[in-house]
TrEMBL record:
SMART domains: HTH_ICLR (SM00346)
Residue stretches making up the HTH iclR-type domain: 16-80
Protein name according to UniProt: IclR family transcriptional regulator
Organism of provenance: Cellulomonas denverensis
Secretion signal span: none
InterPro entries reported for this sequence: GAF-like_dom_sf (IPR029016), HTH_MetabolicPath_Reg (IPR050707), Tscrpt_reg_IclR_C (IPR014757), Tscrpt_reg_IclR_N (IPR005471), WH-like_DNA-bd_sf (IPR036388), WH_DNA-bd_sf (IPR036390)
GO molecular function, one term: DNA binding
SUPFAM superfamilies, A to Z: GAF domain-like, Winged helix' DNA-binding domain
Organism lineage: Bacteria, Bacillati, Actinomycetota, Actinomycetes, Micrococcales
Key words, A-Z: DNA-binding, Transcription, Transcription regulation
Example GO biological process: negative regulation of DNA-templated transcription
Length: 271
């Protein structure tokens, strides 16, 4: 008598488990393989808690689809199929569309002006603004990089040549609190990098205090900054810390959506 086929529910669970294991294998190879060393099958088997033969069976369709390749030593690396998937994902990204609902929530949470700014030569283009009282931070406006939270967030993780260009344009005093000394600005950018967010304490607008954090791409290059501004009376130190924490969390989330898989950190100091 022929054995009964597995119940549909059991078959579905098994297939779901196999898919999860395949995804885990892909992610393990992504995290541990590099140009000099692939990942051996025994390591992959241990990573998902299965026998070597089961791991080899799960790896086979990933190789067939080009998501993984097996080198001459029998080790596994990401294949061209993974590159095609990544390129398709990157091609579909729309940072303003990703940021808009998050900025709206941040504006509701803080009651401030929430902005997505992108670097444009030695300045910052305000690409998206939510909240009330936009003023000089209206969508489409260009603001300096050296005296705004968004600009300092970008410069803090940018190549050194970006900082040099910003200084070369002239550090004009827009308010009595604007940093106009190049050495002092470099020190402020170092502090910004260390704490993970930038502060504009009435340096660009005499009435506004702002915090911002950098957004990184999949390569680790800074592509934008997000932040919140409020009348300085409405952002005392306690509120500033809360807003900075929320802004940094949003920047990390957007960086992850852009493909950055590690915490934001300085990129190469070369131009």
């Amino acid at each position: 008598m022929a054995p009964s086929p597995p119940a549909p529910e059991l078959s579905g669970r098994n297939e779901s488990l196999s898919v999860r294991r395949c995804l885990h294998l892909l992610d393990h190879v992504r995290a541990h393989a590099d140009a000099g060393r692939g990942v051996p099958v025994l390591e992959l088997a241990d990573a998902i808690g299965v026998h070597r033969s089961t791991a080899a069976r799960l790896l086979a369709p990933l190789i067939d689809e080009g998501l993984l390749v097996r080198d001459a030593a029998g080790r596994y690396r990401l294949g061209p199929g993974a590159l095609r998937l990544g390129q398709a994902y990157l091609g579909s990204l729309d940072l303003p569309a990703l940021a808009e609902p998050e900025l709206r929530r941040l504006a509701e949470r803080t009651g401030g002006i929430c902005v997505l700014g992108v670097p444009e030569q030695d300045r910052i283009r305000v690409q998206l603004t939510t909240g009330r009282g936009r003023g000089s931070l209206a969508t489409g406006s260009l603001v300096p990089s050296y005296c705004t939270a968004w600009g300092k967030a970008v410069l803090s993780v940018a190549p050194a040549a970006w900082i040099d260009r910003a200084i070369a344009t002239g550090l004009q005093p827009l308010t009595p609190r604007t940093i106009t000394d190049p050495t002092e600005l470099r020190g402020e950018l170092d502090r910004t990098r260390q704490r993970g967010f930038a502060l504009d304490d009435r340096e660009h607008d005499p009435h506004l205090r702002a915090v911002a954090a950098p957004v990184l791409s999949h390569t680790g290059m800074v592509v934008a900054a997000v932040g919140v501004a409020l009348d300085h009376h409405r952002m005392p130190p306690v509120v500033l810390r809360e807003n900075a924490r929320a802004t940094a969390e949003l920047a990390r989330s957007l960086s992850a959506a852009m493909g950055w898989s590690r915490p934001p950190r300085p990129t190469s100091r070369e131009a």
